[in-house]
C-alpha cells in the first residue's frame, strides 16, 4: 500500500504533528488539560485524518512508532510550555491503541520518554477505549496497573458506545471516564437517566468524568448539575497547535 509506505516515512520527514483540544472544568470553563490528537500533512494529499491513517498504522507495526512519537511529543510540548509559563495545573492525555497496549516494549518506551523529557507522569494520561482493553483483558490489566504505578493517569475513552461492561470501571485502574458524544447528544428520553447513572457511578468510584461533544450552553449546565466535572467539545474549543496552546496558557496562568 502506497499510503503505508508514506506513513512509514512520515515521522522522519516531520509530516506528523499533534494538536491539542482543551478539556475544561464545567463550573468555570477553566482549562484542566488537553487531549493530544495526531495530524498528518501528506506532501501530495494534504491533511489526512487520523480516522484514516490510524487504522492503517494499527494494521502494521507502525502504530507503535506513531504512538511513541505522540507520547514523547506530548510530554516534551508540555515541558516546553512549562518552561515559559512556570509549573502548570494542566495535564495532557494521549490516545493508546490496542496493538500498543499488547506490545512488550510499551512499558519501557513510556519510562524512557518520561526520563528523556523529565515530564511528571501525573501530568500525562493515556486514553483507551473499551475495545482496546477487551482484546486481551488479562494482559491489559497487568500493563495498566504497571503504568498506573509509574504515576500516569488512565482514562476510559468513548464510554457508552461499545458493549460497556460496567466491570471495566472496577477491574482496571482507570481514574477518568470520558462519556462519548453519542451518549451526550442522545436524542431519546433515556439520555438523562443514562447520563445521571453513569456520572453518579463514576463519582462513587472516585473517577473524574469528562463529557465529550457537548453542543450547547444548556447541555453544559445540565451536565454540570448532574455532577459531571469536565467537558471537551467544539463549544469549549477545537484542537489547536503548539503556539496557540502556549498563548492560551500565558493568558490563563
Ligand atoms: O481528531 P480526530 O477527530 O480527527 O480523530 C479521529 C480519531 O483518531 C479519534 O478517535 C482519535 O481518538 C484518533 N486519534 C487521534 N490521534 C490519535 C493518536 O495519536 N493515537 C491513536 N491511537 N488514535 C488517535
Ligand atoms: O475518539 P476520541 O474521543 O479520541 O476522538 C475525539 C475526536 O472528537 C477528535 O478527533 C475531535 O476532533 C472530535 N471532536 C471534538 N469535539 C467535538 C465536538 O464537539 N463534536 C464532534 N462531533 N466531534 C468533536
Ligand atoms: Mn480520545
Ligand atoms: Na471519545
From TrEMBL:
Organism: Shinella zoogloeoides (Crabtreella saccharophila)
Domain EAL: 1-253
Domain of life the protein comes from: Bacteria
Protein name: EAL domain-containing protein
